[in-house]
Write a structure and sequence with these properties.
The protein is mainly beta. The protein has a single domain, classed as TonB-dependent receptor, beta-barrel domain (Maltoporin, Chain A, Beta Barrel), CATH 2.40.170.20. A hairpin with a 7-residue loop joins strand 13 and strand 14. The relative contact order is 0.14. It is found in: Cell outer membrane.
Length: 764
């Protein structure tokens, strides 16, 4: 990573106050534009049912992000977490910074920070599932649209979708020569550069190439003795190339992409909470920290895909092939301090996680009918194969960060599925849909290497000498004998999922629907380690009920989509992260957990120059298992009852990182300037209510509500081909803890502070 000088952030209140003041008269001026031609909402096309449809006709709760809103959200150089709260019921957080996002839909997700973990929210990028959590962080650029599908999608999407799917579609090549370039500069020497160019190569072939480059100086000064004097900087680059062949009855789209990240790992801040409170300690400064350990993150990933379509008259055959690979390593000072063996910091913790080898291969064949009658169907087969190593490393912060422990595991995951879907237009007003999927999912995990001199591997483990067991296992391999089952595990899950829905058109502008759906997430394996035995969590299953309405009104100037839902998860896989038992993940199965709530998505042209969107989600989640207990934090105030072993009883608690409320708001006002120019104001806001960071409840580790706002003042001309804007992200500079580490001290990590900058974009 290139060197960067840390510095204290300079005040930027004055320009933001001026910008906010500009917004008020702008809204008032919008009332004078009634003479313009009436503005109407565009039709939104989605592929939630694996084919292109109007979002208003799909019986699923869906939100989309695209166009100018997407441009505004990415202007501050942030990673994929910028989507958090930008649609109803979506939360995204990370304890690995830019590298490893964790998604939650309707409060349903997974806090597990292991690199061989799975999530109940599936991420699909250009029709290819991104299973490993590191793959989920690929940056967004040259994107046509983001779709968030809420609720189980277990029939038509193939990997771990019981909570929902987040789907990204890149801009496809076309025969027309076109592209764009964008460059932005902001706080802390932030550079955000992206662009794309594409067009015809021949009568049948076209191509498109796009790229992204982002960098930022360190903005946190380290006053401790660690090797990093500045932190939170990064350099990131990514690129994508696509080739499209369009024949008479055949289409082929080939793509390849790559990413490189070099920067700061998640910055853990030791003892930032007041005892007995979730307030920051007096004198807390987001621009400063004192740590003595290492902090660094590096990541490289590549992938390629081929999407082929044959038009066979009444049928269409799809072949989707994908390959992904990655390599990553991230090291951090987990205790977040510079001193130890005190009441506040009992011991040092400095660890790293990495994936030195990884490969993922997927193949899908799908056949769909194209009948002119009321009945149509699709059916297919899906195959998934993944093989990778995971390294876990520990260091002695009191001895110059000398390595004192190492473990390497290997996990393979092979799965196949057959699936189908049916659409039947029963009457002019009533459409029925159903889907099924049968999946076989197999995992194998083995410990390949282990040694530790920093602490006793017998701390919790029923098996004491892990290094000795490993040596015996390796000898057994050489002799062809049986392997010690403690150091290996295999799972095989077979599950049948289904969904059924009905849509009724009240009139041409209003649909109502009902949907029942199931989903499942395959078993998870936790390798044996210094702080825990090997554990296997059984697969979880979900049953979801949803009712919704989708309506266009006011002469297509306004739209409102709303849904209510209830889901029940059986054997939900939970993760006790840390706690007084040490820096380890302990896999658990809860007998049951439930969620219920609603979502509303609205957008409207209030005047011909003022477009407003509003989204809101309410999610009430609850763990229901009277016997389930977890080790609570070492140095906090637990509010749950405890059992005779001092463990917290979590029955009745909400799921972790599950806010009850999420709200989002955008407003865009514009006025013509000259013959082909436009001045505009765009603002966006996102709110999430407080969250539990862990399975148990405590005063310190309850995250406060968070409100982040953005503002963009711009001028575009030549019918939008050129645009220049001033922008601000998190303009109120509200700083909140978004996660924590609980096994040692009151360590937390925070959201991004305010960023301001200028951006220029041109289209051609």
């Amino acid at each position: 990573m290139s060197s960067r000088s840390a510095h204290v952030r300079k005040p930027v209140v004055r320009p933001l106050v001026v910008a906010l003041a500009t917004l008020l008269p702008a809204v008032a001026m919008a009332q004078d534009n009634a003479a313009q031609q009436a503005a109407t909402l565009d039709t939104i096309s989605v592929t939630a049912a694996r084919k292109t449809e109007n979002i208003q006709d799909v019986p699923v709760s869906i939100s989309t992000v695209s166009g100018e809103k997407l441009d505004a959200l990415v202007s501050g150089g942030t990673d994929i977490r910028f989507l958090s709260g930008r649609v109803p019921s979506l939360n995204i957080e990370s304890s690995f910074g830019r590298a490893f996002p964790r998604f939650y839909i309707r409060g349903y997700g997974n806090t597990d920070f292991r690199m061989n973990t799975s999530q109940p929210v599936s991420l699909v990028y250009d029709d290819i599932v991104q299973e490993n959590p590191i793959l989920k962080g690929f940056p967004l650029f040259d994107i046509q649209q983001v779709e968030v599908l809420r609720g189980p999608q277990g029939s038509l999407f193939g990997r771990n979708t019981p909570a929902g799917v987040v789907k990204f579609d890149s801009v496809r090549p076309s025969q027309e020569f076109e592209g764009y370039g964008k460059v932005g500069y902001g706080s802390d020497n932030l550079w955000n550069v992206e662009g794309a160019v594409g067009g015809a190569l021949s009568e049948r072939w076209s191509a498109r190439a796009s790229m992204l480059y982002q960098r930022r100086d360190d903005w946190v000064k380290n006053t401790g003795t660690g090797p990093n004097d500045g932190l939170e900087g990064y350099d990131e680059s990514a690129a994508r190339v696509q080739f499209l062949y369009e024949g008479e009855d055949f289409e082929a789209l080939f793509g390849a992409h790559a990413r490189r990240l070099n920067g700061t790992a998640r910055l853990f801040r030791g003892n930032i909470f007041k005892p007995g409170s979730n307030d920051f300690v007096d004198g807390f400064d987001e621009n400063s920290i004192a740590i003595d350990g290492q902090n660094h993150s590096e990541l490289e990933s590549q992938g390629a895909n081929a999407r082929l379509v044959w038009d066979l008259g009444n049928y269409r055959l799809h072949s989707i092939t994908g390959f992904e690979t990655l390599e990553t390593f991230s090291v951090g000072d987990i205790d977040g301090t510079n001193e130890y063996y005190t009441a506040d910091v009992p011991f040092a913790s400095e660890t790293a996680d990495g994936i030195p080898n990884h490969s993922q291969f997927t193949q899908e064949f799908r056949l769909e009918s194209q009948y002119s009658g009321p009945l149509n169907w699709q059916a297919g087969v899906f195959y998934f194969s993944e093989d990778y190593d995971v390294d876990s490393v520990s260091y002695d912060s009191t001895n110059g960060s000398v390595q004192d422990g190492f473990q390497r595991i290997n996990q393979t995951n092979d799965a196949w599925a057959v699936f189908g879907g049916l659409n039947y237009q029963a009457t002019d007003k009533l459409e029925l849909r159903a889907g099924i999927r049968y999946t076989v999912d197999e995992k194998d995990l083995i410990v390949k290497d282990y040694w530790n001199t920093g602490f006793s591997p017998c701390f919790l483990s029923a098996k004491c000498d892990l290094a000795g067991l490993l040596a015996a296992q390796q000898l057994a391999y050489a002799n062809g004998d049986a392997v010690d089952p403690f150091l290996s595990a295999s799972t095989k899950d077979k599950k049948f999922n289904w969904d059924a829905s009905a849509t009724y058109a009240i009139n041409d502008d209003v649909n109502v629907y009902g949907r029942v759906a199931t989903g499942f997430r395959g078993s998870s394996i936790q390798s044996a380690g210094a702080f825990n035995d090997k554990t296997v969590a059984e697969p979880e299953t979900v049953l979801s009920f949803e009712l919704g309405m989708k309506a266009d009104f006011w002469n297509n100037r306004a739209r409102i989509n709303a849904s209510v839902f209830h889901y029940e998860v059986k054997d939900q896989q939970l993760t006790a992260v840390g706690g007084s038992t040490g820096n380890a993940n302990i896999l658990l199965n809860a007998d049951k957990s439930t969620g219920k709530g609603f979502e509303i998505d609205m957008q409207a042209w209030l005047t011909d120059s003022l477009l407003v969107t509003l989204g809101s989600g309410y999610n009430h989640t609850e763990i229901k298992d009277a016997s389930l207990s977890v080790a609570p934090c070492f140095a906090c105030t637990v509010t749950d009852p405890v059992d005779v072993n001092g463990k917290a009883l979590i029955n009745g608690n909400s799921l972790p990182q599950a806010p009850k409320w999420t709200h989002n708001l955008t407003a865009r006002w514009s006025t013509p300037v000259g013959d082909a120019g436009e001045f505009y104001v765009f603002t966006d806001w996102a709110y999430r209510s407080d969250v539990n960071f862990f399975l148990y409840e405590s005063k310190e580790f309850t995250g406060k509500s968070l409100t982040e706002g953005g503002l963009r003042l711009g001028y575009s001309w030549n019918q939008g081909d050129y645009d220049v804007a001033l922008y601000g992200r998190n303009i109120t500079n509200q700083i909140r803890a978004t996660g924590a580490i609980d096994f040692n001290n009151r360590t937390g990590f925070i959201n991004e502070p305010r960023v301001v900058g200028v951006e220029f974009k041109t289209r051609f």
